[in-house]
Amino acid sequence: MNYFPDEVLEHVFDFITSHKDRNSVSLVCKSWYKIERYSRQRVFIGNCYSISPERLIARFPGLKSLTLKGKPHFADFNLVPHDWGGFVYPWIEALAKSRIGLEELRLKRMVVSDESLELLSKSFVNFKSLVLVSCEGFTTDGLAAIAANCRFLRELDLQENEVDDHRGHWLSCFPESCTSLISLNFACLRGEVNLGALERLVSRSPNLKSLRLNRAVPLDTLQKLLMRAPQLVDLGIGSYVHDPFSEAYNKLKIAIQRCKSIRSLSGFLEVAPHCMSAIYPICGNLTFLNLSYAPGLHGNKLMKLIQHCRKLQRLWILDCIGDKGLGVVALTCKELQELRVFPSDPFEAGNAAVTEEGLVLVSAGCPKLNSLLYFCQQMTNAALITVAKNCPNFIRFRLCILDPIKPDPVTNQPLDEGFGAIVQSCKGLKRLSLSGLLTDQVFLYIGMYAEQLEMLSIAFAADSDKGMLYVLNGCKKLRKLEIRDCPFGDAALLEDVGKYETMRSLWMSSCEVTLGGCKSVAEKMPSLNVEIIDESEQMEFNLDDKQKVDKMYLYRTLVGHRKDAPEYVWIL
Amino acid sequence: MVFEKDLNLYATELRLGLPGSSEESIRISNKRALPDMNDDSGVAAAKKCDQETAPPTKAQVVGWPPIRSYRKNSLQTKKTEAETGGMYVKVSMDGAPYLRKIDLKVYKGYPELFKAMEDMFKFKVGKYSEREGYNGSEFVPTYEDKDGDWMLVGDVPWEMFINACKRLRIVRGSEARGLGCVV
Fold this sequence. Notes:
The complex is a heterodimer of chains A (572) and B (183).
Chain A: H1 6-13, H2 19-26, H3 30-39, E1 42-45, H4 53-59, E2 65-69, H5 89-97, E3 104-108, H6 114-123, E4 129-133, E5 136-139, H7 140-149, E6 155-159, E7 162-164, E8 183-185, H8 195-203, E9 210-212, H9 219-228, E10 234-240, H10 247-258, E11 264-271, H11 280-283, E12 288-290, H12 299-307, E13 314-318, H13 322-332, E14 338-342, H14 356-365, E15 371-376, H15 381-390, E16 396-401, H16 416-425, E17 431-433, H17 440-449, E18 455-459, H18 465-474, E19 480-484, H19 490-494, E20 505-509, H20 515-524, E21 528-533, H21 538-541, E22 551-556, E23 569-571
Parallel strand pairs in A: 1-2, 2-3, 3-4, 4-6, 5-7, 6-8, 8-9, 9-10, 10-11, 11-12, 12-13, 13-14, 14-15, 15-16, 16-17, 17-18, 18-19, 19-20
Antiparallel strand pairs in A: 20-22, 21-22, 21-23
Helix pairs in contact in A: 1-3, 5-6, 6-7, 8-9, 9-10, 12-13, 13-14, 14-15, 15-16, 16-17, 17-18
Chain B: H1 9-12, E1 14-15, H2 39-52, E2 60-61, H3 69-84, E3 88-93, E4 100-103, H4 110-121, E5 127-129, E6 133-135, E7 139-144, E8 150-152, H5 158-164, E9 167-172, H6 174-181
Parallel strand pairs in B: 1-2, 3-9
Antiparallel strand pairs in B: 3-4, 5-6, 7-8, 7-9
């Protein structure tokens, strides 16, 4: 291959798009490293503190698309204090100063200020795409800057962010000359939007393929938008409440029927269940249906809707669908690959409406199932064993029993055997979340069989350090391990500290690790940042090594201790 | 009222602990490292934990169930709206000296509404049929809708009814017959 000029190699590398593969390519030899780095356009950084923006810019001058993730996953569940970190401003600032022609920025669990958004909007002439998932720190003013200044914006996708809504005028900031929008998702905004501005924007965006509205967009506006954008592929409905005998509803029915390209449907943030029949004509083409924010839709109306969706590949739903409803899914959705069942009443643990029965039905009826997130009232070993047999193709298996240490209600045994069956049968399993009563035994199985496992989430499980050791020794491909409320201590933590350099991160909270143990890791592994998060002020007064650590987060990094940690984070 | 939420502050206190566990035993779930790991102790531990998590009021564990705050907040908003949004309408009965008020949101459907009205005014609703309205009673339930028209209760789906109903009137005697017979 060294006989080929660089341009040829570069052309060959163009066909290599996965991050993993490109990373491997860069390690082959110096010459390949050089060619790869100049031709690389898309970079994914799973932990924003593992590298600095300066080094990123130095290595990849041709960077066009950057994906950054900030806070650890357990931040989603309020286990990480708000100002822990993950600020995007330094990245945008550094990129703005450089000659990088950034076109796409995708952020997850990061703190994004209006200032950052404004700087972003003014610094990159060809900026095309902004995707923010589970971020916070910005208001609609920041969005206004993006709308006003990014002349060639194609994508503005806001997923489940906490946005301070200053009401409506940001949409009007898209200039008349902006006609390039392909994707607009503002479903997570809670405030009013200027409906006229929205209609005009959609009218002048002939390439618009994805549109997800928020609750403030009423049915009659929806109808007008659909009339102007029958080419939509992905639709998120805001408010869906109307009188089925009204003229507006008839017009909506006609508008929906024109949208023959819709393959993905979500939203229904407010819903009148008796109006669902208008949707039936497009159900037959749907591959993705997300009703997980529509508690108003349940019972027969929900089942009738699902019965129309024969081509569904991904279904996100609330547990009010019940086991019976899951039975309907099993009979109807033979192409189903991904199922997510969320709790409709997370504050009352006793009310989850699905049990192991629903899951078994789906596993029997949908053999292509490979990704699961299932919040349920209870689970049995027998059910898990059956599911493992029916669906050996699981890549993601996340089970959450609302009572976190509930045993098998039939046998009163722990769920070790059930999960053991899952990991043994599903040889391609990459992600696993456990719950229910679990002993060290389940971890023995995981260490033995889960060879492809990359991410493992454990809560309220195990009996001793052995559990953690089985996993660390057995799962060679493990990248992320997050543990809460388990009896794992220093012995497990310190057994093989070198392992942590092969992983992205380790989170342990409410376990048995001590300050001394954490210090030991930090001492032995300078390539890791070992962070102790303790808001209780204990750390200030009592620096006894034997003291148990409330929250520890460690991750590999090339750039040492971060400088932006708040007071209650100690980096050892 | 359907929802009976007393201010059980202890039960809703946020702290690190399992549902049902008391202050002192916060880490009970972790202390299962028994010297011998045979089945008996496993089952005993399971039973013990089962008992501990079986009480009627469940305290909330921080970060459990593991769902995103965004989603939790959304559902909470919807729940609050559903709970506090009471739909009170006036109910009158021909011949009764004063009107009453009822909250339509507390009823799941027509049968429950009728039972409540029957209890309140001491009468009986007749048998409903689509063709003939209410048969077998001189009392007929009617309502005023958003357009100001007086309609027979029971023709439209419940959800639609509670959104449209502005007030209720229990019509009596010959007047009722006229309404019930219209197809």
